């Protein structure tokens, strides 16, 4: 269940070198406004690189990882820069990666050693202290208010002491969060089809935003656990392919205080 703002999006096919630079070309808008993307396929504002560089820094060859909201594994199938592919393919460098999701599509995710479908709000079906890292990439925004405390408690339960919860999610008070929450959930498919024509209707999920502020996170992951949260403004890909819209979003990002950045990078170390 991954995807920025109001959606998750994940098609499927095994990850191979063919999904790297051989087939990836920066889009026209990206290449025009971020010319450095011609060098390696990523920009200086790339949130994917920022987030997964930190995730990889927390992993060792002995790590066991839970991909929470793993979905179909879009990253494994879409053309992407080789740098993105190398960072995200950590399943090839750790002991094991397993995944859970509310969507049956997770069963077809080719990057998981084990995949389970778990209804919303249900316990994570693994024993206490099973994992060194729990990953949730664009998932927290889909957790309901009623389920949020249980999700946080379950994440901490399955982590080993000293293990990390790593999440990337829209900031409730950032541009993406405000935009997503201004659109009723039943209209998200229609809006996304205009902004992001590549999105599929089945990859659009309701948004909730109950784990998407620093205050929410401090309450859900209290001391003595260590909580590290920082804001990040990536390229405004959620604005479709319009150069004027991207320029407007860039201008707003420059005016936005860091605490209101569009994306929250969340790292929680279990005490």
Notes on the protein architecture:
- The protein is of the alpha/beta class and 271 residues long.
- The chain has one domain (17-269): Rossmann fold, CATH 3.40.50.
- 26% of the residues lie in helices and 18% in strands.
- The protein is built from 8 helices and 7 strands; from the N terminus they run H-H-E-H-E-E-E-H-E-H-H-H-E-H-E.
- Strand 4, helix 4 and strand 5 (159-170) form a beta-alpha-beta unit.
- It is globular.
- It starts with 27 loop residues before the first helix and ends with a strand.
Summarize the structure.
The chain has helices at 28-33, 47-57, 82-88, 148-158, 175-181, 188-195, 214-220, 243-255, and strands at residues 64-68, 96-101, 114-117, 131-137, 159-170, 226-232, 263-269.
